[in-house]
Amino acid sequence: MTKLWGGRFTKRPEQWIDEFGASISFDQHLVEEDIEGSLAHVSMLEKCKILSSEEANQIKAGLQTLLQKAKNKELMFSAQYEDIHLNLEKLLIDEIGPVGGKLHTGRSRNDQVATDMHLYLKKHVQQIIQLTKHLQHVLVEKADQHVETIFPGYTHLQRAQPVSFAHHLLAYVSMFKRDTERFEESLKRIDISPLGAGALAGTTFPIDRYYSAELLGFADIYQNSMDAVSDRDFILEFLSNSSILMMHLSRFCEELILWSSQEFQFIEMDDTYATGSSIMPQKKNPDMAELIRGKTGRVYGHLFSLLTVLKGTPLTYNKDLQEDKEGMFDTVTTIEGCLTIFAGMIETMTVKTDVMESSTKKDFSNATELADYLASKGMPFRQAHEVVGKLVLECIQQGMYLMDLPLENYQAASDLFEEDIYHVLDPKTAVNRRNSAGGTGFDQVRQAILKVKEDLKQE
Ligand code: ARG
After folding, report:
1. Quick check: CB of 169 below 6 Å from ligand 1?
2. Most-buried pick from 146, 147, 171, 246 (CB within 10 A)?
3. Which domains does the chain have, with CATH numbers?
4. Would you say residue 137 has pLDDT above 70?
């Protein structure tokens, strides 16, 4: 079989070399985008009178047939024809005869592949934005049910200060909101057409790049043809945004895994998202959360892989760029899957509010309340810290908590202490009094929930 580019060759490459260079095994994901791009290109050629309407119509009909066959999974591709572009061109010529060879007038695979990638990412980034918004929605609904659920807040994974469980969930909503914004912002740079940049330098044909861009729904065109075919920043940005998103999911998964353990028992995963052990009958493992945490690694890997591929490539197109695809496809599949599973996991988990609340009664996370109490009565905070530190030590030595220490002991430490300290020490009071902006006080949390719901509704 001769190559579509075989004219200047005297020898055909061997089959295994063909296979090594081929990308069809993975770039067939782009089949619909490639046909879509070709349809716009041929319409533009017709409008600019580079092809006659008769030729253009024949080509369009052929492309429509291929599109239908692609949707029905009826197209047969071959490594012989290297990639999705050459495979489709060959199939088109088989379908409609030599006029199919006119499709490639005024374009190159270099602008063609870049166009396909832009179309593909635009579609998927829009889907991912919807999924990140859905996740925020699920979280804020959960938060709404737990404004007054008292939860131990940690620093250094040591009990720090009690918080509202809703406040903890809303912290993640803020992260996912930033992720959503990053994806939205990146669309500006994805929504640009490289089509018509040719191999690197533009073309001698009187094409209209704005027209094909408009047909494809792109907001703008690349201004420099060399940049158009070399640029993979938009993919890097996607991988980078995805890595940050995965990092957030992974941190949350780490917490869910801890909270599901016998040691914490703060939540229980729904059976759908857990698995048993083949040997230990009692086990209920949080597999899905672990898997999402694990998959974070592969997304980071794809980011690093593409950064490394790009660092040494001179302008403009180099075959190295073919390595941009598998990581991008895999990242799309990975994050779409992770976001869907994760939202389901949150929606269905059981929150053990009693365990959370009672755990805050058996720790010293209310110690700051006492120090603040003394400070509000005029004692310098540093001195108050010292006094309360000694009281904590006294409790530890006597095997009790601050709530159990008699008033005499408090008054021996400072005559500023009065009976109302027991109310102040109650974790619920402690949480509710933290009403500074962005704090965990119930009013603040309720306001935050309203704000998130508003924002989600507006978009
Ligand atoms: N399969 C190639 C890729 O993915 C398409 C562009 C090929 N261009 C070329 N001049 N060899 O990068």
Report:
1. no
2. 246
3. 6-105 (1.10.275.10), 112-357 (1.20.200.10), 366-426 (1.10.40.30)
4. yes
Estimate to the nearest angstrom the gap between the alpha carbon of 138 and the chain centroid: 16
Kindly report the backbone phi and psi dihedral angles of residue 153, in degrees, each rounded to the nearest multiple of 5, phi listed first.
Answer: -85, 140
279: left (phi over 0), alpha (psi -120 to 50) or beta: alpha
Q: What is the ipTM of this complex?
A: 0.97
- From atom 7 of ligand 1, which residue's Cα is the shortest distance away? 109
Q: Sign of the CA dihedral 322, 324, 329, 334?
A: positive
Residue 1 pLDDT more than 70?
no
Q: Which of 245, 255, 346 is nearest to 295 (CA)?
A: 245
- pLDDT of 389 over the 70 cut: yes
Specify the DSSP element, H or E, that contains 189: helix 165-190
Which is nearest to 177 in space by CA: 166, 169, 165? 169
* Ligand 1 neighbourhood includes 321 CB (under 6 angstroms): yes
Using CA atoms, how far apart are residues 197 and 201, in angstroms rounded to an integer?
Answer: 6
